[in-house]
Amino acid sequence: MQHQNESEKWWSKSIEEICREFNTDIQNGLTSTDAKQRLQKLGLNKLPEQKKISAFKIFINQFSSFIIWILIIAALIAGFLGEIIDSLAIGVIVIFNAILGFIQEYRAEESLTALKKLASPTSKVIRDGKLQTISSYDLVLGDLVLIESGDRIPADGRFIKIYQLVTHEATLTGESSSIYKITTPLSDNDLAIGDRKNMGFMGTVITSGKGYMIITQTGLKTELGKIASMLEVKKEEK
After folding, report:
1. pLDDT in tens, 178-212
2. What is the SS3 assignment for 187?
3. CB within 8 A of 94, min separation 6: which ones?
4. Per-domain boundaries in the chain
5. Dihedral angle, C-alpha 184, 187, 193, 195, nearest 10 °
6. Is-contact 72 64, C-beta < 8 A?
7. What is the fold of 10-45+121-219?
8. Model-level pTM?
9. Contacts for 194-198 with beta carbons within 8 Å, 24 or more apart?
10. How far is Cα of residue 196 from the mean position of the Cα atoms in its chain?
11. Beta strands at 205-217 and 130-135: parallel, antiparallel or unpaired
């Protein structure tokens, strides 16, 4: 597997196709050497890390726009010329814009922080035929991962073996109902996340049972990563 292909419909493929696509041994997983090479090529399985911005700085940043400064100058000129009503009207617009921008950016900042907390710190993987615990940052495409009740899924993947596995995916779908997972391929190529019942997604929780999955997407390529990327874009647009 040379790269992360976002267009692949992993839920529609058979287990044999998944193993062949990622060169994964269904019993022994990847070799340590192969996993190391993939990690060097594709990077860590993590969401973007940025320094948290204080609420005060977020508010001050609302006045950094060139247009806002033009309005402030216009308000001052209007006040100097005795046009008090015009000056106050412009001032109200500036303050209202700052408050609205602050609320939107602050919520985006808090949402991004909350998303990062959903990532699982460690993962149980089978490499070289042995079960071992590693940092979730070190997961790579094709890794064979064991997940059990109470675990957060560390990356997106395709289930290949399950034992009464049930997940809670409200963080992605907004739906509170439990999802009973399967391993059989799904024929529909255009499925919503909640309908991809043979897939597991980063940040979602295993409520009961256990299973094995092959990692198909990591980091920003996961569904959770895509949401984090959109929040970053919204922050940059403010």
Report:
1. 899 999 999 888 888 889 999 999 989 999 999 99
2. coil
3. 63, 68, 71, 72, 75
4. 10-45+121-219, 55-116
5. -70
6. no
7. 2.70.150
8. 0.72
9. 194/169, 196/11, 197/11, 198/11, 198/158, 198/159
10. 17
11. unpaired
